[in-house]
Amino acid sequence: MNRPPENDLCSICHSHFTAPAQANCSHWFCGNCIMLVWRHGSTLQPFADVLGNLETYNRLFGGRSTSLVQRMQDLPFLLRRLLREMMDPQRTLPFVIRARVYIAMILSAVYIISPIDIIPEGVLGIVGLLDDLLIALICFLHVAALYRSVLYFRHAGS
């Protein structure tokens, strides 16, 4: 592979590749980003930031199973990136995945808005909102898992 995967972003700056360069580990970076890493390798702080980004990148796209807590910590990053990809007409998300995301969001919204609940708010008050929060969390985790599988497929190719 002599070009970075389509619809991929640099794991250091999280934007589209400018002068893409492939490292020995087969990760792709912007040429400027990887040069900054090499130039600032002796200074502790910038290199620690880059290492943190690379560890996050490897955790998100490594395909390893993660704990529920780790998946909840990854939610903001994955959901922001998914939203950016769905809004960008130049990026392509498979139709089936896009449809599953929309269906999950619509069904969750219908449940949250509907007056029929597992734990009724009218009887238990504020405690009755727990089932709505749980449904929203399950929806977000499901959507993030779908998007993570797309990213893993793009990066791992299988």
From TrEMBL:
Q: What is this protein called?
A: RING-type E3 ubiquitin transferase
Recorded hits in Pfam families, A to Z, give:
DUF1232 (PF06803), zf-RING_UBOX (PF13445)
Q: Which stretches make up the Zinc finger RING-type eukaryotic domain? A: 10-39
The UniProt GO MF terms for this protein read: catalytic activity, acting on a protein; zinc ion binding
Q: Give the chief site where it resides.
A: endoplasmic reticulum
Location within or outside the cell: Endoplasmic reticulum membrane
Keywords, sorted A to Z: Endoplasmic reticulum, Membrane, Metal-binding, Transmembrane, Transmembrane helix, Zinc, Zinc-finger
- Gene3D superfamilies, per database record: Zinc/RING finger domain, C3HC4 (zinc finger) (3.30.40.10)
Q: Which InterPro entries match?
A: DUF1232 (IPR010652), RNF170 (IPR038896), Znf-RING_euk (IPR027370), Znf_RING/FYVE/PHD (IPR013083), Znf_RING_CS (IPR017907)
